[in-house]
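Re: the 197-residue chain
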Amino acid sequence: MSGSQRWTFAGGMAATVGGVGWSAKATGLMIAGLQPPIVYEVAPLFFPVAIAGLYALIEGRRSGLARAGLAVGAVAELCALLSVLGLLLGPTEWSPTGDSVTVLSPFIALSALGTILGLLLVGIVVRRTACLPGWWKNFPLVLAVSVVPLIASSAVFKAINERLFEFPTLLIGLEWIVLGAVMARRCLLPDAPRPST
């Protein structure tokens, strides 16, 4: 396995771990009304690593758009790291609750927005270069584009039932798990036929 394949595999595993964290949080709240401790808060550390793994997948065909996506993903990772460290090591008043804004809120927001933008930019290049097989070349882009409408739909689900507020988080988590599986599969079966570009 080459260095790029290792990065892609690590990115796939990171996408899966982050997705499992979000899915576990959503499932726990929807079924039992309980959130597993810290899994949701730590999950954003893994998503920018998945972006780096996608970037490694497009080896030899990296455009400025892909490099910009990687750079935005790196900023998102730094913001995620700072927010998680602040949540774990900082005083209690740093932890945002409900609609409160704390010293960590900008880092949490920049981590989320940077991850979406980084995935969108790298996803465009993944689609153009068809470095994932078949329809899956579109999936990183679909994931990036689906996040905002899914989050916006939380209010609709909450109006139906308070616990359904977490349903979009569950779907986003599942999307990350699927992306991770597709990336890992691409590394484990590198000789799968690729369309010509």
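The radius of gyration is 17 Å.
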